[in-house]
Amino acid sequence: MGAPVAATPRMALLCTSANSLRLMVWCRCVRADLQTMERRLQSRYYSDLDGFVADMQLIFDNCRLYNQENTPYYKCANTLERDFQTMLKELPRP
Description:
single chain; Histone Acetyltransferase, Chain A; mainly alpha
C-alpha cells in the first residue's frame, strides 16, 4: 500500500505519524469524501454555504458514529471539526 494521501496538512501529519493501517484507510476514505465535495464545489452543486457545511458535518458525525471515542479516527474527526468551525467563523458574512 502506498503512502497515505491527506486532504489537509493536519490530516497528513496524523496519517504519516500514526502506526495504524486503519487510520491510513480512514484518511483515504475522508479524502474520497472531500474529493466528492470538491467536485460538487466545482460544479456549483452547493447553492449556499449551509449545504457545504452539512456535508462536512456528515463526515465528522459518521466518523464518530462508526468509531469508539478513544480511537485515533474519533479524535481526528474532533480535531478536524474544531479547525473547520474556526475557519467558518473567520469567513466574511453577507
